[in-house]
Amino acid sequence: MNKKTPSSKSARPTRRMALQMGTVALLLGTQHIARGASIVAVRVWPSKDYTRLTIESDGEIKTRQFFVAEPPRLAVDIEGIDLIPALRELVAKVKSDDPNISGIRVGQNAPGVVRLVIDLKQQILPQVFTLAPVAAYKYRLVLDLYPAQAADPLEVLIAEKLIDNRSTAPRTENPPAAAHDPLGDLIAQQSGKPASSASLSPGKPADNKAPAANSVPAKPPTAIASAPNGKTDRLVIVALDPGHGGEDPGAIGPGGTREKDVVLQIAHRLRDRINQQPNMRAYLTRDADFFVPLQVRVQKARRVQADLFISIHADAFFTARPQGASVFALSDKGASSSAARWIADKENSADLVGGINVKAKDAQVQKALLDMSTTAQIKDSLKLGTAMLGEIGSVGKLHKPKVEQAGFAVLKAPDIPSVLVETAFISNPDEEAKLRSDDYQVQLADALMRGISRYFAHNPPLARNRQI
């Protein structure tokens, strides 16, 4: 009978333990890989400008993507993960009115590889990139889907105005009387000259025929030269810029109110007031909940040849209960106060939170554009800010009695008077309640409209050829 030696007794348990430990290590390794790429959240941000999809994870994930033109669709392979319910949620998040996406399919393409297939409504120029953790976000995979043929925003604005004019014009065989122009009256009062019914009226196509209600002019109307009294006979465009949006919520009040929501509501109210003017049209850099990079906001305003640019915010502050509204203009000589510098730095960091593709081809071009600010623009911006501050003060407290200045990136359009309005401090519970109030929003929109009119009363818009 063979006897087992002590060494042989210890050898077998050691091998068994090694196999067990190897199995455990393999299981832990698999779990670690899955855990390292766990999906935290998925989000879809549709807009007519572009649709953004974000997949947030607690670890970096690798992707490969390819675009198929007919029918248009984008396929994205996400490596290192298995199909989980969080990814299936993307399918339900696509709405029927999304202008760019018709649907999403998701499936396990191979072990450890999940494939997303995004079916598109039109030809798309996709941008796919990743973002490192910032603010409340972990790692993000971003898919930005831009229409290959984007609508010309200036042509759309003018077409909308012409359609409005046709819908409100009296039906008569005789030529309609010119609409009353309250802004023209106000400017005339300041200049001491009688108002002209033609002053500041929208431009018209060369053949004097308005386009059909469902069409857009091939080219926008040409502006008419300045009238002898210093006024202009053309459409005046005011660019409204609701801060933040989409992935970037902005400041959040103690009651959970998000800055991006209230400033969009205020911008909509102000837009309605501007559009009621017979000679004016508002253009929003974002008209829904989606993210717009800072330099793109400036680019959009210049694309429509805006006469004014007004960025609307409701920030938080580092003190416990700050109060009052503020108006800021650009500075090329440093901030006018430490508070102005702090707010500017905070607003300028919006791109980090919202997420921009730093590899975009025109990034350097846009950065150069933001360095083209002029002394004349800053001077006019201070005039606009002063006019608006005087009106805002009639509906609530002011944080500062004069226009402050700092290096706000969003105010650097070289040829457009630009201001940033902090409507109130959302971090203050009392002011947060005001910002959520319909009454305060209405009063504030009225005050901003009066400020715009007051500015134009002393600074009539210049003649401009709006052809591109």
UniProtKB/TrEMBL annotation:
GO molecular function: N-acetylmuramoyl-L-alanine amidase activity
Keywords from the UniProt entry: Hydrolase
Catalytic reactions on record: Hydrolyzes the link between N-acetylmuramoyl residues and L-amino acid residues in certain cell-wall glycopeptides
Residue ranges constituting the MurNAc-LAA domain according to the UniProt record: 298-453
Biased composition (Polar residues): 188-200
InterPro entries with a match to the protein in the record: AMIN_dom, MurNAc-LAA_cat, N-acetylmuramoyl_amidase_3
The EC number(s) this enzyme carries: 3.5.1.28
Pfam short name (any one): AMIN
Hydrolase keyword on record: yes
Domain of life where this protein originates: Bacteria
Chain residue ranges for the region called Disordered: 167-228
Protein name stated in the entry: N-acetylmuramoyl-L-alanine amidase
Source organism (scientific name): Polaromonas aquatica
Lineage: Bacteria, Pseudomonadati, Pseudomonadota, Betaproteobacteria, Burkholderiales
